[in-house]
Automatic annotation (TrEMBL), chain A:
CDD domains: PBP1_ABC_sugar_binding-like. Residues 1-21 form the signal peptide. Belongs to the bacterial solute-binding protein 2 family. InterPro entries: Peripla_BP_I (IPR028082), SBP_2_dom (IPR025997). This is Substrate-binding domain-containing protein. GO terms for cellular component: cell envelope.
TrEMBL record, chain B:
The keyword Glycoprotein does not apply. CDD domains: TM_PBP1_transp_AraH_like. It holds the Pfam family BPD_transp_2. It comes from Aquicoccus porphyridii. It is a multi-pass membrane protein. It is found in: Cell membrane. This is ABC transporter permease. Keywords: Cell inner membrane, Cell membrane, Membrane, Transmembrane, Transmembrane helix, Transport. It comes from the Bacteria. InterPro entries: ABC_transp_permease.
């Protein structure tokens, strides 16, 4: 097994390891912005670990540092290096399409990971590997509804939603999944208002403070991720209100701890380790000529106070 | 007599245009939703605005001194992450001291570059915005930072407790505002800041050590940022690396909205506080009115423009100026 690691800011000279075994496949990855949050940091570590565990795989690990231009240059580098497959975590779903098309024209299969590119680029990619955010939203609605049924308030409960950053696909899809599913399972629960928390705990706390002033009776809060959910929880604690059911998504360590403390009801377990391993496996399967679904989702199960013992605490 | 009164009112309007704009918005929002002026909500908004506000107090010095500070957002992230990380390693007291020392060191570095080396403050602080962000990520390894034992520390006192019924962040914001207002208006140092920002050359010729004054404005700014980081960390006892991202522009907006001149030499701490409160109450008011959030961005902008216009119109005594 050979591992070639290239830092994002280092100059872009190709430093391929000794390609000894004839069967070795070389897979290049360009990530979005490692280090900007714990999810992406953990993803990179898991990706490298998974590649190290497979003797037939050699990887070139790159990071765009959130910069579209750098990511495009990195894709071109990987094409120059004649890697067998390219995995891309798009910095921008639109702007990377020309680079992806170039790889496609060079007969290098491209796997998009975590967040999909825009539909205009679908012809040029072999597969998308990542979470299904619509399903995550609808599962969150089911968690919320089931809990209300347990409490016997499914006919009168009123809830608020704190969504992710406006305009981001993940935020839109999770909100859509939740809003579509909720009336199917709990038709009498009212979603009183939705406001964005921008994936930011502090912002979510401010939004929730305003909700608490505005509504005397709030039975549940759905947050687009646990970071925002915990922000909302902080606001509720500070205001001395209780009996509010919190459901989030992307279970973070803080959310897991709040669940263990009994303050937070449930979330969606999305592991960056699963995310990274699924991306690598998708690329390997494609290179081995196996049939891979175009939208290759990995499972993101429900986690609540009831079943959290089955899951390890997230590391991020 | 009547004439005199009219002049007096005119002079008052000219001086306090922004205050009138603020009062007008408050009344408007209160009519739209009476809960807006409930004490709990007012405290809530000022408490959330305290973090932005404390940073704006410091930037007021920098701006009056004729410079910019775009690094305060990422510097606040740095302070927050550092104090949270050190909390579990050194204990709360030492962590706070160490965080203040490190943040002041960053401020001193910027002050040295802008003050003594006379580098353009826009370039220096824009560069520091990314450099400090990198420093924060390196420190934390990109991970969210959380205090392990959230219920067993007195560290939460700065962000979550109340003294005599008033939330502590509001008290700190108010105390710092009074202290810095006195520093700016009643001390030789304060007058030097106005002199250096108003006309740097003239200040130099009158024997004012321009470089040192500029250096010290960045020290004041860094001290405020460290205080903001302390409030932020104490409020949530955990943080993302990007907690202060983008706040530099909100801070600058509050300072300019308060009437400080981007050219330097004009502005007061009190008016910056009004600028901060306007921004805070707009955000909260729009939420309470329940406006669709895509529209909120636009309405926020309209209200800010209206406030600036009212301020300018009051100063010149008419709504528009036929001659530029």
């Amino acid at each position: 097994m050979n591992l070639t690691r290239k830092m994002a800011l280092a100059c872009t000279t190709a430093v391929l390891g000794t390609a000894a075994a004839a069967e070795t496949m070389t897979i290049g990855i360009t990530q979005n912005n490692v280090g900007v949050d714990s999810y992406q940091t953990t993803y990179e570590k898991a990706f490298i670990a998974a590649a190290e565990a497979d003797p037939d795989v050699e990887v070139v690990v790159l990071d765009a540092g959130g910069d579209v231009a750098r990511q495009i240059a990195q894709v071109e580098d990987l094409i120059q290096q004649e890697v067998d497959a390219i995995i891309i975590w798009p910095t921008n779903g639109e702007a990377v399409i020309p680079a992806v098309r170039k790889a496609h024209q060079a007969d290098i299969p491209v796997v998009v990971t975590n967040s999909n590119i825009a539909e205009a680029g679908f012809d040029f990619i072999a597969s998308f590997s990542g979470p299904d955010n619509i399903t995550q939203g609808s599962r969150a609605a089911e968690i919320m509804c089931d809990k209300f049924k347990d409490m016997g308030i499914e006919d009168e409960a009123g809830i608020v939603q704190i969504s992710g950053q406006p305009g981001y696909t993940t935020a839109i899809e999770r909100a859509k999944g939740f809003e579509d599913r909720l009336p199917e399972v709990c038709p009498n629960v009212t979603l009183m208002e939705t406001q964005p928390g921008d994936w930011n705990r502090e912002k979510a706390q401010q939004v929730m403070e305003a909700f608490l002033v505005k509504y005397d009776d709030i039975d549940g809060v759905y947050a687009g991720d646990d970071n925002m959910g915990v922000g909302a929880l902080n606001a509720v604690k500070a205001a001395g209100r209780d009996g509010i059911i919190f459901v989030g998504a992307t279970n973070f360590a803080v959310g897991y701890e709040a669940m263990a403390a009994g303050d937070y009801w449930g979330s969606i377990y999305q592991s960056p380790v699963d995310d990274a391993e699924a991306a690598l496996q998708t690329a390997i399967d494609i290179l081995n000529g196996e049939d891979v679904p175009f939208l290759n989702y990995f499972d993101t199960p429900k986690i609540t106070q009831d079943n959290m013992g089955e899951f390890t605490k997230p590391v991020f | 007599m009547a004439q005199l009164n009219k002049t007096e009112i005119g002079a008052f309007l000219a001086k306090q245009g922004i205050l009138i704009a603020f009062a007008a918005f408050m009344i408007g929002f209160a009519l739209a939703n009476q809960r807006f002026i409930e004490l709990d909500n007012v405290f809530g908004v000022i408490r959330s605005s305290a973090i932005l506000g404390v940073m704006a107090l410091g930037v007021t010095f920098v701006v009056i001194g004729g410079n910019l500070d775009l690094s305060v957002g990422s510097m606040m992230s740095f302070s927050t992450i550092v104090v949270l990380d050190l909390h579990d390693k050194l204990g709360p007291g030492l962590a706070i001291l160490a965080m203040f020392a490190l943040t002041l060191a960053l401020g001193a570095f910027i002050g040295f570059l802008v003050g003594y080396l006379k580098l353009n403050s826009l370039i220096v602080t824009l560069g520091m915005l990314s450099a400090i962000h990198g420093l924060t990520l390196t420190w934390s390894g990109g991970k969210n930072m959380d205090i392990a034992d959230k219920s067993g520390t007195w560290f939460s006192v700065f962000g979550q407790e109340r003294v005599m019924g008033i939330p502590v962040p509001i008290l700190i914001f108010a105390l710092l505002a009074v202290a810095l207002s006195l520093l700016l208006s009643k001390t030789p140092f304060g007058r030097k800041v106005y002199a250096v920002g108003g006309n740097g050359q003239a200040a130099t010729f009158s024997g004012i050590p321009r470089a040192r004054v500029v250096f010290l404005t960045y020290i004041v700014s860094a001290f405020c940022v460290a205080t903001a980081g302390l409030l932020q960390a104490s409020r949530s006892l955990g943080s993302q690396n990007t907690v202060g991202q983008g706040m530099e522009l909100e801070v600058l907006a509050a300072v300019i909205l308060g009437g400080a001149s981007l050219m330097g030499g004009a502005g007061t701490v009190f008016k910056t506080v009004i600028g901060v409160l306007i921004l805070g109450f707009i955000q909260n008011g729009l939420l309470l009115v329940g406006l669709d959030f895509y529209v909120q961005y636009i309405v926020t902008w309209i209200i800010i423009i209206l406030a600036v216009w009212l301020d300018v119109a009051a100063k010149r005594g008419r709504l528009w100026s036929p001659i530029a």
